[in-house]
Design a protein that fits this description.
Pfam families: DUF1800 (PF08811). This protein is of the alpha+beta class and 573 residues long. It is built from 18 helices and 16 strands. 23% of the residues are buried.
């Protein structure tokens, strides 16, 4: 038993029948440590198990080293239910943990009794329930399962509990094991992995957690109500969701058709009055904002696009997200992230806010402005590949691989309304529309209608309504209160400031000996160490080191460091 409660099976008979036994169950070479359900203290609720700091269970076991204890155990097996009365389905599911084969494929088993969805099969002519009895029931997920009427218990050594020196024996449930420690098989490992994945999928907290994440992504609601999560989790577990007269799903656990329908058709996702709730909705993910902008405004490829490169390039560096480029298996942000301020103090979460860095937000706005103004070009502000099609013919979008082709044949007021519907789902608000109308009229008179329409596209992309999924039209005419001044810390602390600077200086290529002359030997040593990174004479500016005390006098500095040469030649040495 390790000090963390994990255990490994040890079996060392006097005569080893096979060399493989020692490899897997020797106390010196055991490779399989597993978790077991130790008994918990009724007072502290902590697990009690033998470890070195409690004298290996107060003397119940012997100490092997500073981290492990060795315990003798006894395995006992007994029937869970006895007699002739048939237990209920609930009692069977809550007490029987050991699976069995279908008794109809086994020899000697006969049906003993059947009632209320429970069948029991016994071996031979047995007249009451024993350890060989097999129950057939339907579990809570609708699956037919077979369970043995068997309880397997591990008893480990006595220890002295109190001053009376009373010996007490601890017990724990014998955990299931798929692998034969003597002759392990790949098949058994695969069965164990399947069983483990099935256990994770059907763990009580799995459905609520998965459904909350799906609600956040599909419905755009960062803080769904417990009732919303509960109803979606029920659809996930039952595999059925009924909306009025339409049924979704096939009745199987984890049916995503039923789950998706429950998410999208739930009244919390469809009731528009909730948009006015400041805790409702969410921020949009950066990449979804880019795609929404391109699709809504009808991004169209130009003849110059040979479809050699992806349309969007290095978006993880520009906006913080890129398809298939998540930093780890947990995606781009934490599902329970709480940005500091009002959201965190209110007990709410805003996962997408974790990507709201200044550089990524500026990159997003610049990219959308560039896309609207000049199309998908190769400029540094574009979402496209940098350096692509830098030369143009002077025609519109001649140096772009795509552009926004949306055209509205309505007047300016209807055009702004159309963009409001396409880009913000109609949440722009009358005040913002009036401001955009004034800007449109002013731009038309100076630069023309086409430029005015492009300007409106760009401005809407900067509004809060475009970046969120809830209503933001809650102005009362008052100025926003300034944030309170942060008070200085009352205790000393150390701050680590990290500067991320692009590029760097290779100090080994600043001042180097030159090839030829009296520095040839030193230059040979330099090239041998630097290899292909070593500098050549033609890339160096000469430095005469006479009188400097160096082993030779013919040196050079990097050609881009001409100021160093001038400073040296001026006598500043």
């Amino acid at each position: 038993v390790r000090s963390d409660g994990y255990v490994a099976l040890i079996h060392e008979p006097g005569v080893l029948g096979s060399g493989s036994v020692t490899e897997y169950v020797s106390k010196d070479k055991s490779q399989e440590y597993i978790s077991v359900p130790w008994e918990r203290s009724s007072v502290t609720l902590n697990e009690f198990f033998p470890r070195p700091d409690n004298d290996c269970g107060q003397g119940a076991c012997s100490q092997l080293d500073t981290n492990t204890c060795l315990c003798d155990i006894t395995l006992t097996e007994e029937a869970i239910f006895s007699g002739t009365d048939l237990p209920s389905r609930e009692n069977i599911l809550s007490n029987c943990y050991i699976g069995a084969f279908d008794p109809t494929v086994l020899t000697g088993y006969d049906l003993f009794a059947s009632s209320n969805g429970v069948e029991v099969h016994v071996l031979g002519s047995e007249t009451q329930l024993s350890t060989s009895a097999i129950f057939k029931v339907i579990d809570e997920y609708g699956n037919t399962i077979f369970l043995k009427n068997l309880k397997s218990t591990i008893q480990w050594g006595e220890y002295q509990e109190d001053d009376a020196r009373i010996g007490v024996t601890r017990t724990l449930r014998n955990v299931p094991n798929f692998n034969d420690l003597l002759t392990p098989e790949l098949r058994d490992a695969q069965y164990e992995v399947d069983a483990f994945l099935d256990m994770l999928l059907k763990y009580p907290s799995t459905a609520p957690n998965i459904c909350k994440l799906l609600i956040q992504h599909l419905a755009g609601i960062s803080n769904p109500s417990p009732q919303y999560i509960s109803e979606v989790a029920t659809a996930f577990k039952e595999g059925i969701y009924i909306a009025e007269t339409v049924t979704f799903g096939q009745g199987k656990y984890g049916d995503l058709r039923a789950t998706s329908a429950a998410i999208l058709l739930h009244r919390e996702a469809t009731t528009t009055v909730l948009d006015a709730d400041p805790t409702y909705g969410s921020l949009r993910e950066p990449i979804s904002k880019v795609l929404k902008y391109m699709r809504s405004l009808e991004y169209t490829r130009t003849p110059q696009d040979k479809m050699i490169y992806p349309i969007l390039d290095e978006m993880n560096l520009k906006v913080g997200q890129e398809v298939f480029s998540a930093p780890d298996q947990f995606s781009f942000f934490d599902s329970d992230y709480k940005p500091p301020g009002e959201i965190a103090s209110s007990g709410l979460v805003s996962p997408e806010a974790q990507l709201l860095s200044v550089s990524w937000l500026i990159g997003l706005i610049r990219g959308m402005v560039q896309l609207s103004r000049e199309g998908m070009t190769g400029s540094k502000d574009s979402f496209g590949r940098v350096g692509l099609l830098e030369e143009g013919t002077g025609e519109p979008y001649s140096n772009a691989v795509g552009y926004l082709s949306y055209q509205s044949f309505s007047n300016s007021t209807m055009y702004i309304g159309d963009l409001d519907t396409l880009l913000t789902n109609g949440r722009l608000g009358e005040t913002n529309k009036a401001s955009l109308q004034a800007i449109y009229n002013n731009t038309v008179s100076t630069f023309g209608e086409e430029m005015a329409r492009r300007v409106i596209q760009q401005l809407i992309a900067t509004t809060p309504a475009f970046h969120t999924t809830s209503s933001v039209e809650r102005k009362n005419g008052k100025k926003r209160l300034p944030a309170p001044t942060a008070l200085p810390a009352e205790v000393e602390y150390k701050a680590i400031v990290v500067f991320n600077l692009f590029g760097g200086l290779d100090s080994f290529n600043v001042l180097v000996p030159k090839d030829g002359g009296d520095c040839s030997d030193l230059y040979s040593d330099y090239r041998r160490e630097r290899g292909i990174a070593g500098m050549l004479n033609k890339t160096l500016l000469s430095i005469n080191a006479t009188g400097s005390g160096q082993p030779c006098t013919d040196f050079g500095v990097h050609k881009k460091l001409s100021s160093f040469q001038k400073i040296y030649d001026a006598g500043h040495r």
